[in-house]
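Entry 14. Ran structure prediction on the chain below.
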Amino acid sequence: MKINDLKKRLAKDRKSVELNVRIPEDVLEDLQRIAPQLGFSNFEALIKAYIGKGLRTDLERLEQSPEVSSLIESLRRKGVKDEILADAIAEINTLKAA
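Output, structure tokens:
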């Protein structure tokens, strides 16, 4: 991640938006249970940390492979649905891990 992007992400005054997400009850219970054990004040902070970590990982991976990002955008413009793209990317990641 570029240093300027990182500085922006660390700024305390970043604008936030409220988002409603449906999460299975058992997942929420687990988040509430482990958040304090991991040093988080509440489960919302833990969710934000998980999202941030996953996002940084994906951004770094995609920035290292700009041709993959270009291909995905081209397929979107041609009408390929996001669900299909996500399935294909998941399949590739599974094959890499094997």
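DSSP finds five helices and no strands in the chain. Will compare against last week's run tomorrow.
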